[in-house]
Write a structure and sequence with these properties.
The complex is a heterodimer of chains A (146) and B (123). With 146 residues, chain A is an alpha+beta fold. Chain A has six helices and three strands; from the N terminus they run ααααααβββ. Classes of the chains: A alpha+beta (146), B alpha+beta (123).
């Protein structure tokens, strides 16, 4: 059944399967080996897949390589270094920044809403340890740090 | 008989060096050669990282050869350091096999072991 599927796979289908596999392999390699090693491994695996897929079908070729994560780890076992995971640090920083923006947006929106509904001219509060001041005057409404 | 993955992992670099000592080869062809000697379950994903490590270690050298049937192939061959590594690992392997062979008893059977006290003593 599998053979029938692969026999009818178009050149685009083969390319898509190969590049999808290499993309996932690249993602896993990214945090395990250096960029130079990563490029070298990807170049070699791409060549191997092309040669292998010319001898048999792309599905069997990729099945034989195993999951991208496992293959990346196999390569990393011998190339492992104690380099910092910069990408992971950037993802964490961006995530925390977005979280902070979201929380502060809802907090300030809540403060302004409370001011408007109560009719008070100003209010003072603390957000994550920072003193925050909100005002509702004839000139306008706003929020800022004291 | 299915091969034990852990045991295979231990001997695979030596087998790869040995095969490449006989004749240079590219990745997929090498996998086929290893499958032909009896490692029928061997996957390419097991062999390629070992090839990469052996090349990094300096045990293998490689060259790209253009192919009329597809993309250029990366042929691996043994370096002088690889020949030394093969000699050493082969000697170690044969020494280990001799010890294991001496230490191994007969293959256990399904018959229950008889306590020594019940065994018939020769007259």
């Amino acid at each position: 059944m599998k053979t029938q599927t692969t026999q009818t796979r178009s050149a685009f289908g083969v390319w898509r399967r190969r590049e999808s596999y290499l993309f996932r392999l690249d993602l896993w390699l990214e945090e395990l080996v250096s960029m130079r090693e990563r490029r070298s491994i990807l170049r070699e695996i791409r060549g191997n897949i092309k040669v292998d897929a010319a001898a048999r079908d792309i599905d069997t070729t990729l099945d034989s390589l195993g999951p991208p994560r496992t293959l990346a780890r196999s390569f990393a076992e011998t190339n492992r270094s104690n380099r910092p995971f910069w990408n992971r640090a950037i993802y964490w920083f961006t995530g925390l920044l977005l979280l902070w923006f979201t929380l502060s947006f809802f907090y300030t929106a809540g403060m302004l809403s409370a001011l408007l509904s109560s009719g008070a001219h100003s209010a003072e509060s603390y957000f994550l340890g920072l003193p925050v001041s909100a005002f509702n005057r004839e000139s306008g409404i706003g929020i800022g740090r004291r | 008989m299915q091969q034990d993955a852990q045991s295979l992992r231990g001997v695979l670099p030596m087998l790869i060096l040995s095969q490449l000592h006989r004749a240079e080869s590219y990745g997929y062809e090498l996998v086929v050669r290893l499958q032909d000697i009896g490692l029928s379950d061997l996957a390419t994903g097991t062999v390629y990282p070992v090839l990469s490590r052996l090349e990094q270690d300096g045990s293998l050298t490689s060259r790209l050869v253009a192919s009329t049937a597809g993309p250029a192939r990366k042929y691996y061959t043994l370096s002088p350091a690889g020949k030394e590594a093969l000699k050493l690992s082969t000697a170690r392997w044969r020494y280990l096999v001799a010890i294991v062979h001496m230490g191994l008893g007969p293959i256990p059977t399904d018959e229950p072991d008889q306590p020594e006290s019940l065994r018939e003593e020769p007259k």
